[in-house]
């Protein structure tokens, strides 16, 4: 039996719980519980997803009535149970959705209320049973939550527990008190996003509970860049944030750890703070980036079960690239609404992140042309140093040494200094944005086709009144 439909149902319910937690604006907890019945004739798992966010509305669960027949058949009795309450309610409301009921008007059944005994709290619990292996479901839900942890959503803690019948295995994915972004205002979402991806890389895709110090003895082995693109349309602001991390493993021979995707890069996409599926516009955005401008060559970009993977050509040994993209809106979307990813915005956000990383780290993401020119620097430096050192004019030698900031006329020192200055100029030139306007204003020191970058066109938007702004946010 294929568990993909149950997997998608769990992801949908977890994403809805995250939305309710964010809407509350208070300290919230999201809990996922799996309980198996090993004595049953067939594997039976009770899945419960609960949160302490705002109470649910019935409209939120309308789309559950349109689940596929395969999903319904994988439910034990076809029933999804719901318990919800708001802070202003005096009772807890209970409902059941019988998906096997052919008459949709009779699928939703309101059950007797239960008293809150004067307590003030809010929250929702959704539960159902399915015929699946608890280990399979646990592995998939854990991977989903590990990606969710990248967001480090302010004021939201996540907990995962498993009861296999004979003993309870409590897996605390992220205790509330351990979240460093727990008390940050929502305006600090970008900082949490960057910090979360750094932790993700240091923990080998969150496969480990702590930083892998054998591979990353110092955090400086991570080079990070980030960028933000904003678009306003009819009172709704869309923001796309991108973070790119290049990590260099300390051990190149028999590394003690390995990534799930190996040398491939999994492009992790988030939609309104929860992991989402890669869409075709987003794939097109990744394919349209001029990667050669950053010294990277793509072998292929593939879509594997809603996840995008980039396979690189000639990536240096021990290097790994992590990319995460987050698209969110300043207004909470309705539960039934969906947003298409803007291809141009996504492309620009990733490019800003790459430029940010390149600008802050010398010698990183150099174009192939810059690498080629760099190769001539030692010979040119040696030639210039030779002309200076063989001159019989002591005043000339002194002036050259002074220009280089040296007190010595030593040929080796002069050669090394000239080489470093040449490399510095090459690197600085390679970091400059090669726009059409700059090319018209000044001559480039080095010219090459790899600098050609298609300009971002505002004409790609349907409405001329849209306001678009770009910025790079610092680490």
TrEMBL record:
One of its GO terms (cellular component) is condensed chromosome. One of its GO terms (biological process) is reciprocal meiotic recombination. One of its GO terms (molecular function) is protein-macromolecule adaptor activity. This is Type 2 DNA topoisomerase 6 subunit B-like. It comes from Deinandra increscens subsp. villosa.
